[in-house]
């Protein structure tokens, strides 16, 4: 009898990859999606983490992934919506940036949840949305991104109501977790100063919260903020 896997979208790097490996290490069956193939994918597949190529930018790509997943599995333990593109409003025509942000952060999670929720038929079942601190505050330079993460936060509330008591639905809303390689020192210093704790916590911070949510019997419809007290670091 195959163990129902945990699905993590966009988990071929950084936070998603850390969580996929850590959950697999704990003994969970894990399925990840990746958009761009790299040698790591072959290593992950060989280690027992099932890797499925998927681009969620358009509905056809979402449906293609759903069809592939349903051919391979009958049930799921959890769905972690991690896949994300972090575009500023200047990264092209604003209308196109808006459509792209809403597609990956709101429309794809909604369509995936609608299609895959019936597979969440284990005693414990979870959906976790990766949102963002700026969903609550807005962002002058990432308006479309922030709005799309706010939409995902609202979907968390709706799905928690719709899928209870079978499925818990929660969100993790990080501020800085891990910098990107291209972030320069000036950006890093400015960003670190935005929180009270002033650190770059790293991917483990998200995994600890994810593990806690998966083990919980009584948390649903909640947005768990991981932000070093940034909400109190007022001018
Ligand atoms: N890192 C941080 O400090 C913070 C992260 N977050 C959130 O946490 C989550 C993880 O962050 P992080 O690890 O930095 O994420 P990344 O920016 O590293 O992106 C994760 C993955 O998303 C995949 N992806 C992007 N667009 C698509 C698409 N159209 N279809 C399918 N997959 C796609 C990429 O796949 P590929 O590489 O294969 O193209 C990428 O590997 C995200 O939701 C992010 O918004 C929130 C606040 C802070
Ligand atoms: N998909 C992504 N979303 C976000 C990222 C990222 O690297 N990929 N990074 C951030 C920043 O860390 C921000 O929280 C602090 O500058 C936000 N979202």
What is the share of helical residues?
Answer: 40-55%
Could you name the ranges where pLDDT drops below 50 across 5 or more consecutive residues?
none
Compute the number of strand runs: 7
Query: How large is the share of residues in beta strands?
Result: 5-15%
**How is the main sheet built?**
7 strands, parallel
Superfamily at the CATH H level?
NAD(P)-binding Rossmann-like Domain
H/E element order: EHEHEHEHEHHEHHE
- Kindly report the average pLDDT value: 97
Q: So what's the CATH class?
A: Alpha Beta
Radius of gyration: 17 Å
Distance between the termini: 57 Å
Q: Would you identify the CATH architecture?
A: 3-Layer(aba) Sandwich
Q: Structural class, judged by helices and strands?
A: alpha/beta
Describe this structure in words.
The protein has 235 residues and is an alpha/beta fold. It has a single domain (6-232), classed as NAD(P)-binding Rossmann-like Domain (Rossmann fold, 3-Layer(aba) Sandwich), CATH 3.40.50.720. Helices cover 44% and strands 14% of the residues. The protein has 8 helices and 7 strands; from the N terminus they run E-H-E-H-E-H-E-H-E-H-H-E-H-H-E. A 7-stranded parallel β-sheet has the order 3-2-1-4-5-6-7, with helices on both faces. Helix 2 links the parallel strand 2 (30-34) and strand 3. Helix 1 (14-25) packs across helix 8 (204-215) and helix 3 (59-72) packs parallel to helix 4 (94-116). The relative contact order is 0.14. The mean pLDDT is 97. It binds NADPH dihydro-nicotinamide-adenine-dinucleotide phosphate and the ligand Nc1nc2c(c(=O)[nH]1)N=C([C@H](O)[C@@H](O)CO)CN2.
């Amino acid at each position: 009898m195959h163990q129902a896997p945990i699905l993590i979208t966009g988990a071929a790097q950084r936070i998603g990859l850390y969580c996929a490996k850590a959950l697999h290490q704990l003994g969970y069956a894990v399925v990840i999606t990746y958009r761009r193939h790299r040698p790591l994918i072959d290593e992950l597949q060989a280690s027992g983490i099932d890797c499925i190529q998927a681009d969620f930018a358009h509905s056809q790509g979402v449906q293609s992934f759903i069809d592939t997943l349903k051919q391979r599995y009958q049930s799921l333990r959890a769905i972690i919506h991690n896949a994300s593109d972090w575009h500023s409003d200047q990264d092209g025509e604003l209308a196109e940036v808006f459509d792209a942000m809403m597609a990956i952060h709101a429309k794809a999670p909604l369509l995936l949840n609608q299609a895959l929720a019936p597979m969440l038929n284990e005693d414990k079942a979870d959906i976790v949305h990766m949102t963002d601190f700026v969903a609550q505050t807005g962002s002058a330079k990432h308006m479309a991104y922030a709005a799309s993460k706010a939409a995902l936060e609202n979907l968390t509330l709706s799905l928690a109501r719709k899928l209870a008591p079978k499925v818990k639905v929660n969100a993790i809303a990080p501020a800085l977790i891990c910098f990107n390689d291209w972030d320069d020192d000036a950006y890093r210093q400015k960003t670190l100063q935005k929180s009270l704790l002033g650190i770059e916590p790293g991917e483990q911070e998200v995994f600890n919260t994810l593990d806690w949510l998966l083990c919980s019997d009584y948390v649903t419809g909640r947005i768990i903020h991981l932000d070093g007290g940034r909400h109190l670091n007022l001018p």
